[in-house]
Design goal:
Length: 251
């Protein structure tokens, strides 16, 4: 290898490290913001695919979701084995890994313990778009994985991935949800919209019959809601909200 090729390799390696460092920081921010939004508690997690590699980043199992740092992010391979990092990955890692393996289009996955989504699943009420946040997910209802047990095996992870199918989110009955997207920002915004959709649907149901969106309304709302400027606006708002609450120190 000549000097020019060697220098190019060094530059490429440095760029890749910088990209991974940026993903780790963004993942730590997303985790803290999900905590601020009350979508994760002492459990729940968000992950991201490393571009150009069959590896993934996720925060460590024992770390408080309120104070995750880039140093708490671990790297796992396609079999869920830790290859870098000081912590063990979350115990429900299989739902992330098996979703990535089933969906090449997915770049980021979140598992939430969102209150109102779970409440609807407990009452066996379908989550169907009836407000603009719900419009992000297109025609409803959101698919439901019926087994409430924690997702600790590849077989369970595959079952969750099958329930998710090509959708952006699936409900885990009595447990939480899984959300998948093409970036950390997109997945985070979808997490916000999923819970807001469930909350509005619940409160509206107390007042009477629900007026669901027509196909035309849903198509127009969904198209606007999925635009990157809207996704970025949600992301930026929660950065500001978390910062004001004191949850962005050190990032």
């Amino acid at each position: 290898m000549d000097d020019i090729a060697r220098r190019r390799k060094i530059i490429e390696r440095g760029n890749n490290v910088s990209e991974i460092d940026e993903l780790k920081k963004k993942l730590a921010m997303a985790c803290r913001m999900l905590f601020v939004a009350e979508l994760v508690d002492y459990s729940g997690h968000i992950s991201v695919r490393i571009p150009g590699a069959d590896r993934f980043l996720i925060h460590g199992h024992p770390v408080s979701r309120a104070e995750v740092t880039p140093d708490d992010i671990v790297t796992v391979d396609r079999d869920g084995k830790r290859v870098e990092g000081k912590w063990n990955p979350p115990s429900e890692l299989p739902m992330h890994i098996r979703t990535y393996r089933a969906r090449d289009d997915v770049q980021s996955v979140a598992h939430l313990h969102n209150r109102m989504v779970v409440v609807l699943s407990m009452a066996d009420r379908p989550l169907i778009p009836a407000s603009n946040p719900g419009g992000l997910f297109g025609p409803g209802p959101i698919p439901v994985y019926q087994d409430p047990a924690l997702i600790h095996t590849n077989e369970q992870g595959d079952a969750v991935a099958r329930t998710l199918g090509s959708a952006d989110a699936a409900i885990l009955r009595g447990h939480g949800s899984i959300v998948a997207g093409n970036s950390i920002e997109w997945t985070f915004a979808a997490c916000i919209d999923l819970e807001e959709s469930a909350t509005r649907l619940y409160y509206a149901s107390l007042l009477g019959p629900i007026r669901y969106y027509t196909d035309d309304e849903l198509q127009r709302v969904s198209k606007g809601r999925r635009r990157m400027p809207v996704i970025q606006k949600i992301w930026d708002h929660y950065i500001a909200k978390a910062r004001l609450a004191g949850f962005m120190e050190g990032l």
